[in-house]
Design goal:
With about 270 residues, this protein is mainly α. It has 3 helices and no strands. Helix 1 runs antiparallel to helix 2 and helix 2 packs antiparallel against helix 3. The longest helix has about 150 residues.
Length: about 270
């Protein structure tokens, strides 16, 4: 009960008690000693009224105490609930902040993975282009090696023919020289026949010298061609090794891109 209302009630009861007491005192003065019973009644009623007032005040105080205890209990419970709610709110805010931080971290990680995937794909494309270039270079080198080998075979055949011609020319020259030798010792041959044989011997000697020079040039050309062929073969081997290395890099890069894409899917 409100304290103000309780004070008003107490004041009202006190005023009423005083009013009733005043009326009884006035009656007692007017009647004198002839009315002892009435005086006794007044004396008897005064303690009852006081007791009623005390009881009412005690009840009011008890009610106020109960109300106050109830209000204190409700306030305490409200404070506890408010504290719990505040703790829950703080916990939710903390978890929200943690989730936000995790989300930002995941987004940053996803962005990094996306950038890494882009770079890996670009590198893979460049390596793939290098592989195509290496394969084209290897094909060109193989064609050059084939051409050089064909030229070497043709030169070998030509050299064999020249060697055969050289041997034949040497044989003819030896035969002519022998005939000239016999002609100079025999007086049977005419001067024209002898001159013709000498001219033929000279031509055969020139032919032998020319064939000898061709053989020497052919040998030098064969050496140059063989050196070029060996160089091309070496370049071809290097190109093949580089091509295999580039293919392995492309495969490894593709695997890394695959793993990074799977990681990005897990982060999403």
């Amino acid at each position: 009960m409100n304290r103000t209302i309780l004070i008003v009630i107490c004041d009202f009861l006190l005023v009423s008690l005083l009013a009733f007491s005043t009326v009884d005192i006035n009656k007692l003065t007017d009647a004198g000693r002839q009315q002892p019973r009435t005086s006794l009644t007044v004396s008897t009623n005064q303690p009852d009224a006081g007791r009623d007032l005390a009881v009412a005040m005690r009840l009011a105080l008890d009610e106020e105490r109960r109300q106050r205890e109830r209000l204190i209990g409700e306030l305490t419970r409200a404070r506890e609930v408010s504290s719990e709610q505040q703790q829950l709110l703080s916990e939710r805010e903390r978890r929200a902040a943690e989730l936000e931080a995790q989300l930002r971290a995941r987004e940053e990680k996803a962005a990094e993975l996306e950038e890494q995937i882009r770079r890996r794909e670009q590198m893979a494309a460049e390596l793939q282009e290098q592989v195509r270039a290496r394969e084209q270079m290897a094909a060109e080198l193989q064609e050059q090696v084939r051409v050089r080998e064909q030229q070497a075979r043709e030169m070998a055949e030509k050299q064999a023919q020249i060697e055969a011609q050289f041997v034949a020319a040497q044989t003819n020259l030896a035969a002519l020289q022998e005939r000239l030798q016999r002609g100079t010792t025999e007086a049977v041959l005419t001067r024209e026949r002898l001159a013709a044989m000498e001219e033929e011997a000279r031509k055969q000697a020139e032919r032998v010298a020319e064939l000898q020079k061709q053989l020497e040039n052919m040998a030098a050309s064969n050496q140059v061609a063989e050196a070029e062929r060996q160089k091309l073969v070496t370049q071809l081997k290097v190109a093949e090794v580089e091509r295999k290395h580039a293919v392995e890099q492309v495969a490894r890069m593709a695997e890394e891109v695959k793993l990074q894409r799977e990681e990005r899917v897990r982060l999403a």
